[in-house]
Design goal:
Helix content: 40-55%
Strand content: 5-15%
Strand order of the largest sheet: 2-1-3-4
Largest sheet: 4 strands, parallel
Distance between the termini: 57 Å
Number of strands: 8
Order of helices and strands: EHEHEHEHHEHEEHHEH
Number of helices: 9
Shape: elongated
Oligomer: single chain
Structural class: alpha/beta
Length: 268
Amino acid sequence: MIHLIVVSDSTGETGEQIVRAAAAQFNIESPHIKRYSHVRDLGNLKEVLESIDTLDNKIVYYSLVDEALIDYTKKFCDYNDIYAVDILTPSIIAIERLTNLTPMTQPGALRKMDEKYFKRVDAIEFAVRYDDGKDPRGARNADITIIGVSRTSKTPLSMYLANRNYRVCNIPLVPESPVPDVLFEIPPKKIIGLTNTPEKLNKIRKERLKALGLPSNSSYSDYERIFQELEFSHGIMKRIGCPIFDVSDRAIEETAELIIRHMKKFKS
């Protein structure tokens, strides 16, 4: 039997996966893989290394960022004639040389990055699930709920904010459709109203109809209809008491930053 030892200052899951992938390339019966996680001080490291010193046929794989711990592991393994593999340092050095950046030497940095990644994926999936009023109940679990008439950039804003880790639900306001009760049940500070000028809406909607191969003189782009929708939506937003942002002269990024600033104001 061979003993494959993984020593990590984080969970060690990535290190263990690498070791398993390497072992899978050989016809070895029952390799014994032992993982030591959250080894972040010299006392703990000494205990781990001394505990495995009596094992035969062993390799130590270590994923550490603290230079003192790395140095001790190297010296211990050299002195005791133990095969040792530094999993992390060569990759860090390569990136450092290419970018001229200084590494953080922060244990668990990869796991924290993974957590941010999965949080963003969750936010994007949330935005897709609760886009365009598909299910207004999503507003209860949303960080931000965006409301407004058609073509006020609700969907692009939702996706942009989702990429900034905000769970966003967006709900269109249409005079013929009942306003979801949930909008009057959640805190107004979590709701953002969007508006646009009649001229911009007229132009955008005509372009939209053209792209769909429909007549541009449809009621959808009619000024009277647009005025009606805007009046209706502004009335709802005032009843709710939420902030209203005019998107007519703003890029998606600009409006998003205004919304983020608004949200942070209530977190501070």
